Amino acid sequence: MIKVNLLSTKKKKKQKPVPAFLIYAVLLTATIGAIFLYITYHFSSAVSAKEAKVQENAKTIAALKEKIKAVEDFEKLNKTFQQRKDIIEELGETRPVRPRYLTRSARFCLQEFGWSAPILKGWTYHFPVSPSQILMLSIMSII
Fold first, then answer.
1. Cα separation, 143 vs 129, whole angstroms
2. How far apart (Å, rounded) are the C-alpha atoms in residues 123 and 103?
3. Model's pTM, two decimal places?
4. Is the dihedral of CA 126, 128, 132, 135 positive or negative?
């Protein structure tokens, strides 16, 4: 007698084993990918660190340029003051000294140095005195 199977059942196929070279290829690809990602991360972090250093150096250079500009401005101002001082000293040597502004101690000093002259209000006398001596006399009058 013939047996007829009325129930439908699927037959399971036996799975073929995965070839070993395929497993090794996948592992090798994953390893190379991981190495590539590490190298990319390492170099990108190195590049970002260098860019940060460049920006820091740029800020330092800008600050130093400002300091150089301040020094140049100071030297220019100092030169201007020196020119003005030279002009004032030159004018002070030729300018007459007004005795009415001299104090008692300054008059005494003038007489001690042999530059005595009758001091009348409003008169102008030419004393052979340099600006530094006038400054010294005025300081002595304050003391």
1. 20
2. 15
3. 0.43
4. negative
- Joined tokens for residue 61: 């250079």
Residue 112: which of 130, 94, 137 has the closest Cα? 137
Give CA angle at 132 (129, 135), nearest 5°. 95
Element (DSSP H or E) covering residue 77: helix 20-94
With cut-offs at 50, 70 and 90, classify the pLDDT of residue 120.
very low
At which residue do the structure tokens 């990108």 appear? 44
Domain ranges of the chain: 18-95, 96-143
Scored b (16 or more CB within 10 A) or e, 85-120 reads: eeeeeeeeeeeebebeebeeebbebbeeeeeeeeee
Please tell me the distance from the alpha carbon of residue 74 to that of residue 68, in angstroms, as a whole number.
10
SS3 125: strand
Neighbours of 137 (CB within 10 A): 20
Cα–Cα distance measured from residue 88 to residue 111, given in angstroms and rounded to the nearest whole number = 26
pLDDT per position as a tens digit, 58-110: 999 999 999 999 999 999 999 999 998 888 888 777 655 554 555 565 666 66
